[in-house]
Specification:
The chain has one helix and nine strands. It has 158 residues and is α+β, with helices and mostly antiparallel strands. The strands form two sheets. It has a five-stranded antiparallel sheet with strand order 3-2-1-5-6, covered by helices on one side.
Length: 158
């Protein structure tokens, strides 16, 4: 008997069909994962910028201003002439993530690194309703949390 090695065309087509069905089932989960990662990355970027602003304020012994305009969070040394933008993070880098703020612009005190007015909150929201917040306390502590009703795993509740 002479037996051939390899796959038949029917076996190959059945395998491709099964893989296509599995990919179709997995795709929505993959989109949710990508959206969640975009939200987390945007939150972490804004958190890093606020931490940078606070530490640079004390390091330079100059008050720095944090503001959100046109979807970009900017850290500016307004006491320099002309004003110098030290860092800027735009929400256009994170498609479909929206940003809402309270108590901005915020100026960090050059001696203690405390914000004026008394802190602020940046709220980031994904299209599916997930929400994360970056909160600056009146003492200048920057933290990330997620509301219990729209929780993102791995972060404490607000």
């Amino acid at each position: 008997m002479n037996r051939s090695k390899g796959f038949t065309l029917i076996e190959l087509l059945v395998t491709i069909t099964v893989l296509a069905i599995l990919a179709t089932i997995a795709f929505p989960s993959f989109q949710d994962l990508a959206e969640k990662r975009r939200l987390i990355n945007a939150t972490e970027a804004l958190y890093a910028d606020l931490q940078f602003a606070r530490s640079e304020t004390v390091k330079r012994s100059r008050s720095l201003t944090v503001n959100v305009a046109d979807g970009c969070l900017t850290v500016t040394d307004a006491s320099a002439s002309p004003a110098v933008v030290l860092t800027s993070t735009c929400m256009s880098l994170f498609p479909a993530i929206s940003l809402a703020t309270t108590d901005l612009p915020m100026v960090f005190d050059r001696v203690r690194g405390t914000p004026s007015p008394t802190g602020g909150t940046l709220t980031l929201t994904s299209p599916s309703g997930l929400e994360m917040r970056v909160i600056v306390s009146r003492f200048g502590r920057v933290r990330i949390c997620s509301p219990a009703t729209k929780k993102v795993g791995g972060y404490p509740s607000c």
